[in-house]
Amino acid sequence: MSASQFAVYQLKKKPELRNLLFRTYEELAKDQIPVQMENYEQVYLGTMKLGETPEQIKKELEKKQPHNYKGHAVSTSDVLILNDEGVMTTYYVNKDTFIEISDFMKVISSESGGLTKDTVGYEIEGKDGTWEVIDYLLIEGKNYFLMEHEQYGKDVAYVVLDQNGNVLVDGTYNGFDDVVKQKILDSLHPPVQEQTEDYKPKLDNWQKYMENGEYLRSAEITEEANYNMIDGLKNNAAPKDKKNRQKESVLTKLNEKKEEVARRSGQKTMREVMGQDIEHSKK
């Protein structure tokens, strides 16, 4: 679940679970029946206000049941899971109250850290002695463990480890208080570094389309010899093998073309006519 949401869980509609329906927490405890998530299914997921209590949520659902609510009215044997800005708390709906339960969502043991809610004799890197788990917390689907020194107990500050056994909070005397919870949330959502006003990321040609408004113009920037050639026609520069050639006379080209046309039509070329005129003048 994301921050500030709650979920309603109810027993699955299976014959073997009928004897658990509408039973109080005390009755289950007397018969040593654990409240296990595998016996439940989610019937509703909704948003909640900051700091809203399970009592308030139950009253809101009784006033108006959402159209996508798939179960019966919230009653004894149901489970409410509140995720208040990433801090998850699980409640068993009892007859007249709500009982906080910690074993509903099983803690997954980390392969690298090897931590569970029952871990004892754990060695923390860089610290003397051994430690044991005395409390744990589920935040945004991840496990966090409060470690107490086995030899010195409360005379030494607690240490908070993540599910991989890494030290997240090195030294706290108040358990999972608001300060520790905030540090956990900060580790999950580190602040984004602000960019300066002059900073511009390097853009590819296809991204420059959004910057300049026309893809061809963006492509020209990488192809043209000068910025004054950016005119919507890609690559105005002359080919490299022609850049150093001497320019040909337009008049010469025109005369060559006329002579070619005259030869094809059987007429005398300009040179032949001029040659005959020279011969006549000599005579």
Automatic annotation (TrEMBL):
Start and end residues of each Large polyvalent protein-associated domain: 115-194
Domain spans labelled DUF4316: 214-255
Designated name of the protein: DUF4316 domain-containing protein
Region: Disordered, residue numbers: 234-283
Ranges of residues in domain YodL-like: 6-104
Annotated Basic and acidic residues bias: 246-263
